[in-house]
Please model this.
Amino acid sequence: MASPFTILCPIDFSDCALNALEYAAKIGEKYRAKLIVFHVLNKQDYQKLAPLDLNGTYQEEFVRNKLASLQAAVVQESLPKGLLSCEIMISEGPIVQKTLEFSEKINANLIVVGTEGLNDFKEQVFGSRSSRLVLQSDRDILVVPRKVFFKYPRKLVYASDYVEEDKLAIQKVVQFASFFKSEIDVVHVSSRSRVIDKALHKSMLEELVPFVKYDLVNYVLKSFRDDIALGLENYLQLAKGDMLVTLSKKKDFFDQLFSKNLSRKMSYFITKPLWVIKSF
Model:
């Protein structure tokens, strides 16, 4: 019997983490997934929630009660709609390290994490958690901005400069899109000359179109000569995309999008979730 699709949602009880939990539960309904809500005990985060408990005497009890309350809400709302189960887990130690270790232990298929976005942007905080998870995880990860509330995605934008692994990654995107009957824009992103772009784009279409068995797919060629991440953000707005999807297998392309200044470039996408596909 195949293992159920497993979603890990790290949570610190902030608004952005609670928003990510809503995404995790709604996606879990479609995949008939097991959802694990995961908290790493952290004194700094706890004192924001319980400022009068200066010594952290009641931290674990407080956290367990908060998690149990969230679990009950998710079970009531999402189990009747298809979510297989919702579990809660607590760990202690460095937040990013423990999250990554736990994601491997449970063989998570997807990590859903929240981020504040540009309006509340503090690079030292943002960079220490969400961006490090994106860079270091070997699991698919969905980054959800705080002010983006869940709605059925009308359009997904899959961005790539085309590699062989795109064929496999797009199958994941198609499966996700089919749950919501979403359109997919496969955006071939390049900074090369127009002649090379057109030739590679044609080759990409010849290979991908027979491989993708989904009617609601558009194939788009876009050249961004300066900042590719900013260009994609503009495309998302113009195309009314609801989620950006990219593959991190080809490191030079992923670096162009994010890695040189991941915290800053991820903050471009403050109005749309970002799904980074890591494995197949």
DSSP finds eleven helices and ten strands in the chain. Confidence is low (pLDDT under 50) at residues 117-127. The beta strands are 6-10, 34-41, 85-92, 110-115, 140-145, 155-160, 183-190, 217-223, 243-247, 274-277. The first helix runs from residue 15 to 31.
